[in-house]
Structure formats: C-alpha cells, structure tokens
Specification:
binds adenosine-5'-diphosphate; binds magnesium ion; alpha+beta; 7-stranded mixed beta sheet; globular
Length: 547
C-alpha cells in the first residue's frame, strides 16, 4: 500500500493541472492511525463530491466488544460514532477554498432515529471500522488547487478521526450509555411479546415535536402519564424498573376532542418501530416493529391486489380479486394499503381518521338504511377490524375524532384530554347498548392469498434494452427507476432519504436479478433480505486493512 507521503507527493505533482488529473489519486494510503481510501473522484468541482473512506483496524479503534455484541448494539454504536464524526468534521467543511463544492466535508446526517447505515460500519469479527464520507476536491474553476486538498487530508481529517472514532478519545460513559439504552429498548421489545402488548409508552416520555419541520422534542411539553388501569411496569436490565402505558393486542381506539394530542400519540407510535437516541423523549416509546401506518392515498397506482375483503361487485364488474388501476380512489387506495400491509406480514395497523377515506372506514346506520348492503361495494374497515384481529392476529390502533361506530368493536378505548390519556373502556361499554351497533353481518372473512407475481413494467423493459436503468432519489418523497417514479410521500414511517435510496437500489436489484415471471412479491422480498444478510456476512469476513 502507498503511504500518506506518496499521496502528498502525488498531490503536489498535480497542482494547477486540469481537474481530471485528480483521478490519479484513486487508491488506498496508509496514514498513522488509519487507511485513507479515495474510492471515487468527482468529474469537476461542481459535480457530486468525491467519495472517501477511512478504515481503522480493530486494535486502533479498540472498542470493547461489550459495546457491539448484538446486532442492535452494533447499529447503535455505529450510529453514535457517525454522529461524533459528523460533529467533528462540521467546523472544517468549506474551510478549504475553491469553486463549487470545493472544500465540502460531508457524512450522512442522522436524525432522531437509530438506523443501520453503510456510512459507518463496524466489523464485529475484528472490531475494525469503516466510515464513508464525501469530500469536495478543491479547484479554482477547473484548475486543481491541491494544496487545499492537502489541508483537508493532512491537517483537518486526522484530528477529526482521532477525536471521534477511536475509543480512547471518546467518553467511555457515553459509549456505554449507548449500549445500555439499546439493551433496555430491546428488552422492552421482548416484553411486548411476552405480555401481549402492541406498544409501550413510558411515563415521562415527551411525544410532541418542536415544530412541524423539526423532529426535536418540544420544550415545555406535557410529559406522558399512563392511566392507572393500563400501567405496566417492566424490569429493564440497565435502567431497572420502568412504568408506562401498555397498549394490549386487539382493537384500540384513541378518542378525544380536537387538539388534545391524539395524532401526536399516534405519530410517536408510528416511529416506535425504530429505536431513538437518548434525549429524544421517545427513547422508551416502543411499538411492534412490524407496525404499518395506514392511510388513504388518492391517485396511487395499484397492481393486481386482491382487495375483495373490502371492495367487491364494482359497477362495471371489474375484478377486485386482482385489482389494478393507475389512479385509485381514497377507498380503493386504503383497501390496497391494508392488503399490502398484510402481505408484508404486519401485526399492527396504525390509522388516523384524519387521513383516512371516510367511506372506507365506516358507514352509519342511516346510510345503511337508505343504501342497502347489496348496492354498496365497500365493506368498511369497522366491519373487518375485529376479524382482522381474531382471525388473522392483526391488531389496530385507531385515532377517531368524529365517528362513534368503532366503540362497539374496540377492546380498549383511550381518551386524550389535554395531552393526558384516560382509560374510558368501561364507560364506553356501559354506553354501547344505548347506541345499538348499526353494522349487520359483513360478507365472509377470508384473507387474500398473496400470489402477486412481480414483473418488470413494459415501459421499463423497453427502456432497459436501450440503456441500464438509473435510480434517482428525491429525499424521502420518492425515487425513480428509469422513467418510472415511485411516490413514497404517504409512506409515513420513512424517516431518512437514505432509506428511500436503499429501497430504490433494492428494487433495481430485484428487477435486474430476481424477477423471473414466477416469484411472488413476498418471495422476492425474502430473497432481498437474504441478500442483505449475505452482504453483511461478506463485510464481516473481509480482511481488515493491514497497518
Ligand atoms: P389532535 O390530533 O387530538 O387534534 P394533535 O396531536 O394534533 O391533536 O395535537 C395538537 C397540538 O398540541 C399540536 O400542536 C401538538 O404539538 C401539541 N401537543 C401534543 N401533545 C402535547 C404535549 N404532550 N404537550 C404539549 N403540547 C402537545
Ligand atoms: Mg389529529
């Protein structure tokens, strides 16, 4: 391997040359504490910055194995190190000068959730660490300013690595805290299963966020307090005893007046599929990891979904056991979202009435009298929710502000009053007889068998013959493959553009290698999961860089 000094000489040699001469820097160089690898060099100073990685061997990084001896703890440690590194490089970004992106230092930006990212990977077999970053290689116009890159690589970066990625420079208490929190969060996840709960919200949690655009905790918020009847106490390995509201399996209704905190509670539950960092306020808000937020999605496209559980006998006789449309209505879109959720293996739906199609959710008594069942293609969700739980083991947590129809089918009713939950199940059950259940017998409940074969859309097949399909990512909103756009704005549990990017790449891979005209979508998803696991295994086996 070349030395750091070789790199310096090379950089001196190409100063003032034209930009493409930077390409010659590709390769790995040994620095005192790490190997610097220049993996991809940008084409000009205005293009996407160059990709550089820092490889630290296990002896130098020296993290105690107790910090990463489970998958979840490793992800939490990686996340923590990435945040430390991001903080360390931030003051140096654009310190080196030049045109366009010259001098940019960047790394994945982490939000409040702890996610596995390729930006920082710790190899559990030897403790070595790889951090991937972006550097804008400096130039004036298209003329290389390599003395500026020398400042970045030789003056700025070594100190950043030293202070943020080596165990001996980090606060050992803080590192241990990351692992301890993770252990406690995993213990809550395990307790949900043991105790028959779909979610847990610890007393004292801060659920609301600072603003609509900031995911930080709201200052001076009213802390969460569980109603006595729903309070469970868990014994966590590190924190010890913790109490909070346990939401039982079954159908749970969250009701209350407007602005009393219903949606805020539901949003916290949506995000509870992820673990959160310390200080977030939702560290101990843990939801069944398979939970799917369900909503209507007007004008989405649907392909071959069996929505007959909810919609049948459409006028014009279009087949709803294999329903396709390029432009779904509110109700058909929500029906398809339920079925796709079931196909994905969820055991918990999260629904907010505010973002649901009313005619999909309920049909009141008067309407049932006027329009007979035989003239109504929709079996509303209120008639299916109990069956979904009793016959398919899928729970529902539903926020309802205006319709009382769900009271009859709820196992648990929580009222939010000035941001405080109250268990009003008993009271509601007493009132139920006064408001008879309007629902009659719904048509037979039969879970659709997913036999959806995944195929490459015709347009993409044609496009692919001309050139390889390109994936483009647009934040958390969408990605495109070739000329097809996949709109993800209403997949509300996506939190980070890198998740969207991963989904885009996975779909690209599936279209390229896994679709064979026979495999179903769930089969392809399992193959993708196996592939991801195999990639992780490959990284584990990769020999660490030699000193
Ligand atoms: P709902 O869905 O019941 O109409 P929201 O959940 O939208 O109510 O909450 C209404 C407002 O109250 C929001 O601006 C939210 O940020 C704020 N809020 C929610 N929970 C709390 C809390 N625990 N403390 C302070 N403010 C809160
Ligand atoms: Mg609301």
């Amino acid at each position: 391997m070349q030395s750091a000094n070789d790199l310096k000489q090379l950089l001196f040699g190409i100063n003032h040359k034209s930009y493409p001469a930077y390409k010659s820097t590709r390769g790995a160089y040994q620095f005192p504490r790490y190997t610097l690898s220049i993996d991809h060099v940008q084409g000009d100073p205005f293009a996407a910055p160059s990709r550089v990685s820092v490889h630290i061997n296990g002896k130098t990084a020296a993290f105690p194995t107790s910090l990463y001896d489970t998958y979840e703890k490793r992800v939490a440690l990686q996340d923590y190190l990435l945040r430390q590194f991001a903080r360390a490089i931030a003051p140096y970004s654009f310190r080196a000068k030049g045109s366009g992106k010259s001098g940019l230092l960047g790394v994945s930006r982490c939000g409040q959730e702890i996610l596995e990212r390729t930006a920082c990977v710790l190899n559990p077999s030897d403790g070595s660490l790889i951090v991937n970053m972006e550097i804008g290689f400096p130039a004036n116009g298209r003329t290389i300013a390599s003395q500026e890159l020398i400042r970045i690589l030789f003056d700025f970066l070594p100190g950043c690595v030293e202070k943020s990625l080596l165990y001996r420079s980090l606060d050992p208490k803080a590192c241990a805290g990351v692992a301890r929190l993770c252990e406690d969060q995993q213990a809550i996840r395990a307790a949900l299963k043991e105790k028959g709960l779909t979610a847990f919200i610890a007393d004292g949690s801060i659920l609301p966020r600072e603003t609509g655009v900031s995911d930080l905790p709201m200052k001076h918020a009213v802390p969460f307090v569980s109603p006595e009847s729903l309070r469970v106490t868990l014994d966590l390995p590190n924190r010890g005893s913790i109490s909070g509201m346990g939401i039982p399996l079954g159908v749970t209704l969250i009701v209350g007046g407007g602005f009393h905190g219903k949606s805020t509670l539901l949003q916290a539950l949506e995000r509870g599929v992820y673990n959160h960092i310390a200080g977030d306020g939702r560290e101990y808000v843990i939801t069944d990891a398979s939970a799917v937020k369900l909503r209507s999605e007007d004008s989405r496209s649907i392909s071959n979904v069996d929505i007959s559980l909810f919609i049948h006998d459409l006028p014009g006789k279009s087949d709803t056991t294999s329903f396709s449309t390029a432009d779904a209505s509110g109700s058909t879109s929500q029906a398809a979202n339920v079925i796709e959720g079931i196909e994905a293996g969820t055991s918990l739906f999260l629904i907010d009435e505010d973002t649901s199609a009313t005619n999909f959710m309920v049909r009141d008594a008067f309407m049932q009298r006027v329009i007979s069942r035989s003239k109504e293609p929709i079996t509303p969700f209120v008639e299916r929710a109990r069956q979904l739980y009793e016959q398919a083991g899928i729970s529902t947590i539903l926020v309802a502000g205006s319709s009382g129809a769900f009271f009859h089918i709820a196992d648990t009713v929580i009222q939010m009053d000035s941001y405080r939950p109250f268990d009003i199940t008993e009271k509601v059950k007493e009132l139920c007889p006064e408001y008879p259940d309007a629902a009659g017998m719904p048509p037979v409940f039969q879970l659709p068998q997913s036999r959806r074969i995944m195929s490459v859309p015709k347009e993409l097949q044609r496009e692919r013959q001309r050139r390889p399909l390109k994936v483009k990512v647009h934040g958390i909103d969408s990605f495109s493959i070739g000329k097809e756009t996949v709109d993800l704005r209403y997949v509300e549990q996506l939190e980070d553009g890198e998740q969207t990017a991963s989904l885009g790449r996975l779909l690209e891979y599936a279209l390229e290698y896994l679709t064979d005209g026979k495999r179903t979508i769930p089969q392809i998803v399992s193959l993708l999961e196996e592939k991801l696991e195999a990639e992780r295994e490959r990284t584990r086996r990769m020999k660490e860089y030699e000193e």
